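Q: Hi! First time asking for a complex rather than a single chain. Here are the components, and I think there are two in total. Is that enough to go on?
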Amino acid sequence: MTLGLGERLPDLTLTDGDGRDVALSGFRGRPLLAVCIRYYG
Amino acid sequence: MPCLDFLARVREAHAEIATLGVAVIAVGTGSPAQAKRLMTAGSPFPCLVDGEKRLYAALGLGRLSLGAVFRLDSYLSYARAFRRGARQGARTGDWRQQSGVALFDADGCLAWLHRASTLGDYPALPGILGVLTTALARRAGPV
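A: Yes, that's all I need. Here is the structure of the assembled complex.
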């Protein structure tokens, strides 16, 4: 499902550089700028 | 390589973005080790990996067509990034992954989205700062 403007992001979990889970819901409470690149190389 | 160059510019603007009360994350499709290297090098914002591309899917960021990849704009993006000092590293992710920049409000709702039309198609930082300022002003509402 693709989000439209104004729609809430589901609670997705990504991983950090150590392989630990990072829940995007943890960033709620203030605006979040997500920069989605291809890869870090 | 244009991706790393863009992250470097976001890093330069991070203090100004943080002043606006906006958190920043970078998300990539590649190796967690590369994300960790950026963190070790002093990235002021978390560099995360979306191995299953769930955030990309939620934002409608798919794979670029070959026609979109091999556009003149792509080559120019690489040239600009190279001139600014970026260098190509190991390719650990999907080289045709469409990139994008999204702003979520404090409740996690999508407030603004830029989807790349080709490689290295990122919005200019002054434009992003303008979007942030406008979005925050809208949130504050009339006085």
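A: The interface with chain B takes residues 1-10, 12, 14-19, 22, 24-25, 27-41 of chain A (CB under 8 Å). Let me know if you'd like any chain examined more closely.
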